Amino acid sequence: MLILSFVLFLLFLFLGVPIAFSLGLSSMVAILANGTISPMLVAQKLFTSVNSFSLMAIPFFMLSGELMEAGGISEKLIEIAKAFLGHITGGIGMVAIGTSALFAGVSGSAAADTAAVGSMLIPSMIKEGYPKGLASVIQATAGSLGPIIPPSMTMIIYCSLTNLSIGECFMAGIIPGIIIAVGTGLVTRIYAKKLGIKGGKRYTWKEKGKALRDGCLAIIMPVIIIGGIVSGIFTPTESGAV
Fold this sequence. Notes:
mainly alpha
């Protein structure tokens, strides 16, 4: 049965069937060919595997991230990062890291974080003098904050499979996320200093306040989620809807 499943999996991949469907179809055919497991049991298992209250949080967080992105939240987060980090040695590289950390609290996804921020800031980093490889590495590393800083879709899936507390995992991701962001920033600053890349203009406190006001919704979103879960006001799933 294992050999049949593997051969079918390779065949489906060769035919251009998506990996998820290739895995499912090859396993299903192998199970039916074996005849020891009832097809009804397979259908029940497929349903019970996704019949999870915790997993409902994922589409809610995805929807909130898409709504905020459609509202131009990326530009506002970039402006906040520029206001507070743009003047540091490394300039736009530091902005990319700061924006990715802020966007991680909105999207919960490394792919979304990297795509949304990188598409705008990687060209800017290259223009400022960063080598293409270094600019890409900075953004890829900063994008990895998506699954670490809450809300994290990866944590939700992990907790639903292991019966761990989503709220506690969210709390546990804050400090590591900050450490990764700071560490990436320090390394970026070292490379920027070697390359002679200076910081941008220094914003006034009035300009910083305006940037914070414009992007306040994105900043308070993680606070609402973590605060609501820890205080017991709502569950992680309900926090996605809120």
